[in-house]
Amino acid sequence: MSIGRFFLPGPTEVDPEVLAAQAHPMIGHRGSAIQDLIAEIEVGLKQVFLTERPVIISTSSATGLMEAGIRNGVGDGKVLSLVNGAFSKRFADIAIACGRTVDVWEVPWGEYHTPAELSERLASGAYDAVTVTHSETSTGVLQDLEGLADVAAGNERALLLVDSVSGICGTEVRTDEWLLDWVLTGSQKAMALPPGLSFGVASDALLERSAVLAGKGVYFDLVPLIRSLEASQTPATPAIPLLYALRLQLERIIAEGIEARWKRHTAMRERTLEWVAEMSGLGLAPFAPEGHRSPTVTCISLPEGVGGPTVVAGMKERDWVIGSGYGKLKGTTIRIGHMGDRTVDELNLLLDDLEEVIR
Ligand SMILES: *Cc1c(COP(=O)(O)O)cnc(C)c1O
Which residue, 16, 109, 139, 295, shows the most beta carbons closer than 10 Å to its own? Predict the structure, then answer.
């Protein structure tokens, strides 16, 4: 398949030069070579997260750092989990699996949570942490993270744990300014890297809590992860080839500019929505409500009689990869992952073919 035709909502297409950067001769995971590499990477990651804090580099998929947020950020207290799709449900399930007490605040798939209602729910003072998925990749819904974070910041006790796996690098996230307590992403979404790494930033409040928590396990204990980072190392052997790809991709991201990258993603969303509107006569509609549509992924409801898997297969015949609907939405929706290094021009070519396939 040629470049620019892979629009899966993760993993996303990786630039051939970035892929090739992995084929670097192996180095040891202790010593100055890796320390120089990690130090350089940290500078770039801080610009992506808009933070002055250390950015944890985990050799795991993003789910690992979701679990890290729970293990380090919640003790005996209760968790309020905002659920509006498959990934936000996963966050709640992880908290339950880690033995935490969880109140699930569920709205139907495709909807979102309002800061005003979060404020009411937190007023009881009952919660130690809130989990939220910023960009719900299963439905294409973007939560008002800034608004929710503002409410959480006004609550003494509750830490806000944010899954921004399909948000970071594709839509506005200001880690320090928004006072996020834990925000994480994975390498294979809007960062357009191969899967296998994930990144997270913790607040002082979360680290203070983590320092006195027992039963955190070993691999996702943030205290040693941060301590190692201070010496530009990781506690265990990292995925060294991926770090070379990351270093190059961060150079490319910073050359574009993080805000320019957000804008490019917004332009791809707008073009997709414009196309869906043009196709409304055929019964197509955006699944997410207006004002809450993610810049990185659009979930499109199909007319009755047009099956999601048929459309995905039809596109595959034309050498395009798009996402099928997620879970219970598999039959009735498709998803276009317009994230990473993709462009509006490439998207236009895709939409031309998609129109023919649907007709
Ligand atoms: C992809 C994704 C995840 C899971 O990431 P893995 O790297 O597969 O663990 C979690 N949350 C969201 C919103 C995602 O898009």
Answer: 139
